[in-house]
Amino acid sequence: MTPAPAILLSLFVPLAGAVLISLSGRWPNVREGVTLVTATVLFLAVASLVPTVMAGGRPEATLIEMLPGLPIYFEVEPLGMLFALVASGLWIANSIYSIGYMRGNNEANQTRFYVCFALALASTMGIAFAGNMMTLFVFYEALTLTTYPLVTHKGTPEAMRAGRTYLGILLGTSIGLQLLAILWTWQIAGTLDFTAGGILSGKASGPIVGVLLLLYMYGIGKAALMPLHRWLPAAMVAPTPVSALLHAVAVVKAGVFTVMKVVVYIFGIDFLRDSGQNQWLMYIAAATLLIASLVALTKDNLKARLAYSTISQLAYVVLGAALATSWGVIGGSMQIAMHAMGKITLFFCAGAIYTATRKTEISDMAGLGRAMPFTFGAFLIGSLSIIGLPPLGGAWSKWYLMLGAAETGEILMIAILMLSSLLNVAYLLPVVARGFFLPAPQPASVGAAAAPARGGIEEAPLLCVVPLFLTAFGCLMLFFFADPLYRLLEPIALP
Amino acid sequence: MDVLGLYNYWIVIVLMMTGFYVVISRGNLIKKVVGLNIFQTSVFILYISMGKIIGGTAPIVAPGVTVYSNPLPHVLILTAIVVGVATTALGLTLIVRIKEAFGTVEESEILQQRDDT
Amino acid sequence: MIGIVVDIVSWVLILTGSAFAIIGGVGMIRLPDFYTRMHGAGITDTLGAGLILAGLAVQAGFTLATVKLLLILVFLLYTSPTSSYALANSAYTGGLQPWLGKKEDGSSKSS
Amino acid sequence: MARQEGGRVIEILVDIVLLSFLAVMAVGILRLRNLFAVVMLSGIYSLISAGLFVTMDAVDVAFTEAAVGGGISTVLMLATLALTTDKEKEPLANLQIWPLLAVFITGAALIYGTLDMPSFGDPQAPIHLHVADRYVAEGPGATGVPNIVTAVLASYRSYDTMGELTVIFTAGIGVMLLLGAGSRRRKD
Amino acid sequence: MIAAHLPVLQIVVPLIAAPLCLLLRRGALAWGLALLASWAALAMSVLLLSQVLSDGPVSYALGDWAAPWGIEYRVDSINAFVLLIVSAVGAVILPYARRSVAHEIPAEQHSAFYTAFLLCLTGLLGVAITGDAFNLFVFLEISSLSSYVLIALGRDRRALTAAFQYLVMGTIGATFIVIGIGLLYMVTGTLNMADLAQRLPPLGQNRTVVVAFAFLTIGASLKLALFPLHYWLPNAYTYAPSAVTGFLAATATKVAVYILLRFFFTIFGPEFAIETLTLQHLLVPLAVIAILVCSTVAIFQDNIKRMLAYSSLAQIGYIVLGIGMASPTGLTAGIVHLFNHAMTKGGLFLALGCIFLRVGSVRLESMQGLGRTMPWTMFAFVLGGLSLIGVPLTVGFISKWYLVQAALEQDSWLLAALVLAGSLLAIIYVWRVVEVAYLRPPPAGAAAVREAPLSMLIPTWVLIGASIYFGVDTSLTVGVANKAAVMLLGGAP
Amino acid sequence: MFVAATLAILITMALALTRALLGPTIYDRVLAVNAFGTKTVLLIAVLGFLTGRPDFLDISLVYALINFIGTIAVLKFLKFGDLGTPGSENSEADD
Amino acid sequence: MQRHLVLRVTTKLLMPFILLFALYVQFHGDFGPGGGFQAGVIFGAGFILYALVYGIKNARLVAPDYVIRVLIAAGLLLYIGVGFAGLFLGGKFLDYNVLASDPVSGQHLGILLVELGVGVTVAATMITVFFAFAARGRDEG
Amino acid sequence: MAAVLHAISLGLVLFATWLLLSGFFEPLLITFGVATCVIVVWIARRMDLVDHEGHPIHLGPRIFVYWLWLIGEIVKSNIDVAKRIIDPRLPIKPTLFWTKASQQSELGQVIYANSITLTPGTISVRVADGSVLVHALSAESAAGIAQGDMDRRVSALKCGGPD
């Protein structure tokens, strides 16, 4: 099995795309065409790996030997496969959406935006396919750096402050804690290769495991585990496609993906469970889950509310990992995909609303549903998926997480999961309800608030609506076609 | 260890430290350079002291002389003297330029002028 | 025999020279002002140095050392008045008034 | 001229007296405010130390120190004074505590270090037995130069001397660059 | 013939070029000669390193006098490596210097400037190559004196005070070294390092030797600006001409570190330095303080050159930390960082020099919008900054990797955490610049700012490129460093 | 005999040194330095004989020479405040 | 100080002997104390004396800047040249043994040349340094 | 012509001095000596030192006679001043006065002024307009100068030379 070229191709394509985009910066149509083509090619390249992986193959590729025994090395395993698929697939949607959004809002520095986007995707591919912790770390950092210009895209003082928070927390945790953990792991285990069953298993013991786990979990700042979640709401100043990238496609997903990788391949779920150190992580995840949901309730700004929702949803993944059972891991991993699909829909909607009406506050959105039925319909679907109701994808991940919790006998966790779902309902559905059922306020005030939409409120540009329609549809599909996903993930949980 | 045998070194140390003290405690740049000179000169004496053999004479071959003091420290110190004078010359050059630029050779007064342009 | 004579001669020369040197040094301390002290220094520079060098020269006999001693002597005698003069001159032009005992001497031309 | 036995005693005496002079000079330099006087004293300091070098048989060094310390350095310092000032500002305190502390620690360390040193003038010290002995024994023969210091300086350790010359060369370049024709300081 | 005389040619070629440069009155000619000499030096250092790596240490008796009597050059893996660093930086900076110097120094001084530059290069190379303790001092002074001059040539008048401060501190340092060498000579009778190494152990804990050790350490620490003795460095680096800052920052302190290594491990030997005197208890805390304090101070600097200077102090802390840990890994980390930091900081200062050329200032506020007006320069700066932070795929990461490894080997996870904390501080100071350069629009009247000329951009990128390349392919640097570390600790030359 | 001379010279030196330290005017110091220089010349000459190596009188010569030049420099400094001025070419007067 | 009659005359008389003495020291460094460096300093001191008494302007006429500049470099080049000569004649760098037919005279020759190089550079440097200082005062004053 | 003569004689004097200093008569060192003398004469001429002032050969043997006399004077005045210094009462009475310097040439005036300084007890402080300002330690030494004996003897040297 040598589909190794596909791995390198999926790294190279976005890079080449970035170069081409920057070269074609003067002709927006060409530039965006290149973006789309790149995204598509990338998705195809990634998808070409799926059959092999499904068949149990583990394609690999080594780039260079950076340090003795520590090459930049890639190996595709199910978890990474899933992540790569999600990321590359959503990139296509996101690209289409970006075009509509960026044009619709006349954003500046669009070339830089697309270039950084492509670079971020390259980094994401690196993370997804990383064959050892070192490689993962390298691309993890690259992702932080390439997304930084996106977060500060607007260049306003507020954006810069957000950028500082973003960079400070992400680089700070990764270098200060994660790197230390990696080094320590190297020290203890003598290798960093992701190995089924975990490389620390049997080599570390006692409190060291706990300390290491702590370092990893908070070192992976992208997973936004409380109290290191501040960057995520702060980054909301960025344009919506960026938020979508952060929340759905790449960044936070990379975080929880790393968490999964660490738990599964560095510690090994059995080892972690046996050590008992997963307990506190479970509680932290649970706390994050609840607190973030509660905070989300208090937010009137739609993107802020979604941001806290993300924090909460990420905690599901961490919780899945912390349960350290096969169901938990499968549930957590699925949650990556499910949440990605759901959350991207929601963000697309938020962006569409903003593009069409310039509205950002939920309280202002009364009655908009009637003007923008597609958008709000999609929002409803996304919400339901996030909440975890059938027949939407989110239901599966919640289901497996419940199973996982039950497996360990953690009644408390089951209760928390259910409570959280209720909270999700409480903060997501009112938005939809408000849009559809509340009467629109006085036209005068609407007109004043929505300068571009002089002739009343209309749907967002087509290029914005199509993607959100697609992703909403995706949410639905994921419910019905979850089986391949399950089969893909099965090997990692049940080796 | 006899006290007389080390007396020489002790005085040299006192001298060195006096020079050293002048360098680090005085704010006047010229005095600093003078202090450096004393410091270095004293180190020279230290070297020469260790090369001395009581009863020996200067290491220039002459008939009837058998005991010569150690020539190597002399060689080293010749080099060191040259280095010293080179340093002094450069230091003084800098002082002249500092005076031209700042109008003073007092460290404290120069520090007061730390304008940021 | 010659040796003893030479020794005695050099002894005498050196001892007298030493005496003069010390006296000159004392003068430099005792005398009341700069100009008078110069006279004290003059003693050590001329006779003090001269006699000691001469004594050494006698001791050394007809060797290269003697030649050099004499050269030193000549050099000293040659330069010391010049530097003394220059010193006195600069002190004078620098405005240092000599101490002239009890009564002021009016003979100096003021410049 | 046979060496007299008293010669050794007087050698040490001269040594001690000159060292004491040096100490007096050093303290004088430390205390005097008038920089001109300081320069004069440092000139004397060099002269005395050169005298000391003669008593310690380092005639070449004495030669150099006299020419450099008494001559060039003094002249240069005077030139500097002429271009700057000859008054030192009153320091805040005559004895400053931190420098004093540093000096005492350094000095104490050195004194501690002397405790294992060979005695002054001991012909059996290791310094005389290892490398230098061969210079003395072979140097003049191998180089045809009776002055062993010159032989070592210009042949055995000729490379050091080249470095030394480079140092002087560097200083010359430096002065040329900093004070030469092209170095008019913009009056800014 | 060349091969047999490589060690001496390494020094003498730049040395002989120096007076020739002075004779060539035209600045351009002098520059050309200097360039040739520095490239020749680089070529020779490469040859020398390969020779040492394949055949073991090379010895060269100057004047054909056998070792303890004459002066000996002794090249082993550690100093061949240092030679390579110094001559590589020199060879890269000279092409850069042409424009930069033309901009900052009056034309009639150019030939003398290149003379001084070559002398500085010679001095640093000479320090690195020699096997004789006193010869080390002589060459140290050559490099020091010429660097005082070079620093004083800065346009700001404070360059003068900075140079003077450096002169005083440097001379004290050198004098301490001389005292130390003198004491060693006193108890052993030899100046040859290898000979010293043989004659010191029988003396055991001789008090004179201990004091000599202390003086050599302090002297070298002054030269390398170890934490409490660092006051001269920020000013010196801030006000010196750009090319000079780049050169000195990349080489001078590195050579001082080499001196420290040589003294500790070759002359005194690891047993004495580490086991008897437990030096690590002194060095490690100082290094950690240097890292944290100087990084913090760097954050508050508005003059970017000064900021980088403080960052250099922190990086020196890393190097010393590696040495202080005195394990093969720690020493490897220190030596690798020697190289890595030279590349990174050299590149950063060169980038800053480009900015100074075009903008006329290196203050933070004047860098607004440079991300757009000088994209290549700024990008180089960002890459260098990432290396300072220690982001993977840069050399900074490699150094920190080994450093933390070494700390963890000794179970001092606190130390490991502190090292990484230093990186966090680096993020802050690097990012201040990045933000201003990329996210603030160029000020209104800044239309005139163009990208730096290629002659400056290429050297900048060579160094920055090296700091990326060697962050990816570490076989050369880590290989040599590891070899050197083992050699130093093993005591075998 | 040389011992006596040495002692005498040392005593004279000490006296000159006292004067140099006491001042009170700078001219006194210069005088003392000058005298001290002469004494050093003598001391070195005598020391040569004392140690039985009288062939190093060159040093004394150098001393005398340097002492002279130093004194001239000092005086020039005192008189003009700088060392480079030749003074007016025409005037024969000393001021 | 041109007008300083006594000084001027004394200097005039003394100067040739100072220079002679300097060169004497230069060439007798092998036999007694002294050598290139000391000779250079004395030679330089002679020029300094001349400059002190006759003014820097006249001194510069005697020793023009460009000559001094060449001499500074020449001395060092001579030294290094001797080193290279040893190298080219088949020995090590600065190996004097190969300079002449027998080692001892080779050594002697080498030492002489090297000391000459030292003397030239040192003298020229001393002169430069002093001139730089003294001239500075006049121009700025 | 006179200049060349001066140069040659200076060269000879220098060479003699060289031989005295050197004490080596090997061909090598003699060669060096010759070279040295040539160089020095060349520099001296560049410095414009070689004239009747700088190289007063014309004084001839007269100068030695004067020296002998001067040495006698020096000894006498030395003893006088020494006595005064060690006398506990310190019997000094400093005076400052102008005395005439009747020499025609500058060289003569310099010799006169230096002679005054060389004899302890009197110091010349200034030379101007054919007069010398003298500082004397005591009335006796002042009188000795005022007498004019030394002035006459120096004048007799005829320092002006054939120019």
Short description:
The structure holds 8 protein chains of 8 kinds. With about 190 residues, chain D is mainly alpha-helical.
Written description of the protein model:
The complex is a heterooctamer. By secondary structure, chain B is an all-alpha fold. Chain B is built from four helices and no strands. Chain B has helices at 3-25, 29-51, 71-102, 107-112. The longest helix of chain B is centred in the C-terminal third of the chain and has 32 residues, at 71-102. The N and C termini of chain B lie far apart (60 Å). The longest helix of chain D has 27 residues, at 5-31. Chain D is an all-alpha fold. Chain D folds into two domains: 9-89, no CATH class; 123-183, no CATH class. Chain F has one domain (2-80). Chain F is built from three helices and no strands. Chain F has helices at 2-22, 26-50, 57-80. In chain F, helix 1 (2-22) packs antiparallel against helix 2 and helix 2 packs antiparallel against helix 3 (57-80). The radius of gyration of chain F is 17 Å and the shape is flat. With 141 residues, chain G is mainly α. Chain G starts with a helix and ends with a helix. In chain G, helix 1 (5-27) runs antiparallel to helix 2, helix 2 (36-54) runs parallel beside helix 5 and helix 4 (65-88) packs antiparallel against helix 5 (103-140). The model of chain G has no long low-confidence stretch (mean pLDDT 85). Classes of the chains: A mainly alpha (495), B mainly alpha (117), C mainly alpha (111), D mainly alpha (188), E mainly alpha (493), F mainly alpha (95), G mainly alpha (141), H mainly alpha (163). The interface between F and G is medium-sized, with 27 and 35 residues.
Overview features:
heterooctamer, C: 111 residues, mainly alpha, disordered C terminus, D: 188 residues, 2 domains, 73% helix, globular
Please state the overall shape of chain C, judged from the principal axes of the Cα atoms. elongated
Q: Briefly note the structural class of the backbone of chain C.
A: mainly alpha
| Secondary-structure-derived class of chain D | mainly alpha
Q: Please tell me how large the radius of gyration of chain C is.
A: 18 Å
Helix content percent band of chain D: over 70%
Biggest sheet architecture of chain C: none
Number of helices of chain C: 3
Q: Report the C-alpha radius of gyration of chain D, rounded.
A: 21 Å
Strand portion of chain C: under 5%
| Uncertain regions spanning at least 5 consecutive residues of chain C | 103-111
Average pLDDT of chain D: 81
Order of helices and strands of chain D: HHHHHHHH
> Helices and strands of chain C, in N-to-C order?
HHH
How would you sum up the global shape of chain D?
A: globular
Count of helical stretches of chain D: 8
What's the structural domain tally of chain C? 1
Report the strand count of chain C. 0
